[in-house]
């Protein structure tokens, strides 16, 4: 059986041979749900895909560490990083504490995923459990010139970040095609 896997590199647009960093081990980190409402099929699609991928890697004999985070704070209402936190807003509507909302909808998410017979992640960290580490990483990114702060918000400095520059160039090309 040929165990060669090719994956499309979204940065280059090319199919590339998958070569794990460690020969027999693969780490998979998936950005999980923001838990402020009932999950729907559109939400599940991402996690069903990664469940299938993790199972396939295991089938091929790799040892896989599957990590899926839970965003339980800090997701603002719109993409312009403005407005109220979605979880705080939902807590006000349901007259609950924000962490009660996060817990309620995290449990709902897990129940729905179990209906699809999806594997549970090996580790499921929460955003609130790692705030100090996130602040430290952001401080390092700013200190190294890859981001800057304006009015309490932090933005990537696209000019100083080669990868971000390539991503932005790709996005501009996509927008121009529309």
Walk me through what this model shows.
The protein has helices at residues 41-59, 86-94, 98-115, 131-143, 162-177, and strands at residues 6-9, 14-17, 25-30, 63-68, 147-150, 153-156. The protein is α+β, with helices and mostly antiparallel strands and 178 residues long. It folds into 2 domains: 6-130, HUPs (Rossmann fold, 3-Layer(aba) Sandwich); 144-178, no CATH class. The strands form 3 sheets. Strands 1-2 form a two-stranded antiparallel ribbon. It is globular, with a radius of gyration of 19 Å. The protein starts with 5 loop residues before the first strand and ends with a helix.
Q: What's the number of domains?
A: 2
Per CATH, what is the topology of the largest domain?
Rossmann fold
- Spans where pLDDT lies below 50 across 5 or more residues: none
Supply the CATH class of the largest domain.
Alpha Beta
Number of helices: 5
Strand order across the biggest sheet?
1-2
What is the CATH homology-level superfamily of the largest domain? Answer: HUPs
Radius of gyration of CA atoms, rounded to a whole number:
19 Å
CATH architecture assignment of the largest domain: 3-Layer(aba) Sandwich
Helix fraction, binned, reads 40-55%
Distance between the termini: 42 Å
Order of helices and strands: EEEHEHHHEEH
- Protein structure class: alpha+beta
Shape verdict: globular
Largest sheet: 2 strands, antiparallel
Mean pLDDT: 85
Quaternary state of the chains: single chain
According to DSSP, the number of beta strands is 6
Percent of sequence in beta strands: 15-25%
